[in-house]
Amino acid sequence: MLSINRTAMRAAATQTARVCGARSKHTVPDLPYDYNELEPVISAKIMKLHHDKHHAAYVAGLNAAEEKYAEAQARNDVQAQVQLQPLLRFNGGGHVNHSIFWQNLIGEKRGGGELPAGALQLAIDKQFGGLGELSTRVNARTAAIQGSGWGWLTLNGDGKLDILTTANQDMAAAAGHVPLLGIDAWEHAYYLDYNNVKAEYFKNIWRVVNWKDVARRYDEAVAQRK
After folding, report:
1. For the segment 81-133, what is each residue's pLDDT rounded down to a tens digit?
2. DSSP-assigned beta bridge partners for residue 178
3. Which one-letter DSSP state was computed for residue 28?
4. Is pLDDT above 90 for 3?
5. Contacts of range 20-29, beta carbons closer than 8 Å, 24 or more positions apart
6. Phi, psi at residue 164, to the nearest 5°?
7. What are phi and psi of 76, to 5 degrees?
8. Residues with Cβ < 8 Å from 188, sequence gap 6 or more?
9. 191 to 49, 163, 196, 199, 202: CA distances (angstroms)
């Protein structure tokens, strides 16, 4: 009996190694600009900490949780798999949300804050009456988040632009929305620059929105609905 148990344990360990070995680990994407490009809206110090430390922590947490999940699957431990769901949701959301966030931003000298003419601009004008009103509404919703979270401009299930907030690191996609523009409302995104005056951070971040990236996401999301 002892030898059979040992054989089974070795087989399970081998299967786990194969599963974990086959899975490629997540990595923090490079910023598409220098740390100081978003100044004075967001300082290089915040960008370095935010990208190199906070985002990296989510990626490390996601990789660790996925490895544990693969091990639980290999031994058919359903209870452990269920218990790992919050870690996967939190760290996976942190990785996905920040990966969108970096692409959503660009320095003012490279077109930050400039909404190009096109389908997205027409949709914003039609639904909100212009970019100014959109930013006002998004900021109001995002400022109302209790604790930490994200403010989003999305494409909803009806194919219309929508404003959404999510708690902590929850993803817009989990609510059935396609994320177009995300605003990080966690303190680590602004506190070193704005202290407790987060309304100024929300106001200023529109100066460095990469509307070309947002418009690309919008066009792709609309095309996928056809």
Report:
1. 999 999 999 999 999 999 999 999 999 999 999 999 999 999 999 999 999 99
2. 155
3. P
4. no
5. 20/67, 20/70, 20/71, 23/66, 23/67, 23/70, 25/63, 26/59, 26/62, 26/63, 26/66, 26/95, 27/59, 28/52, 28/55, 28/56, 28/59, 29/99, 29/102
6. -135, 145
7. 55, 40
8. 46, 49, 50, 54
9. 12, 24, 6, 11, 12
User: Reading across the β-sheet that carries 178-184, which strands appear in turn?
Assistant: 161-167, 149-155, 178-184
- What is the model's pLDDT at position 21? 43
Cβ atoms of 101 and 184 within 8 Å: the answer is yes
- Residue 48 clears pLDDT 50, i.e. is over it: yes
- Taking residues 145-173, report their average pLDDT: 97
Tokens 């218990």 belong to 83
Q: Give yes or no for a contact between 105 and 38, defined as CB atoms under 8 angstroms apart.
A: yes
Residue type present at position 172: A
* 9 has pLDDT over 80: no
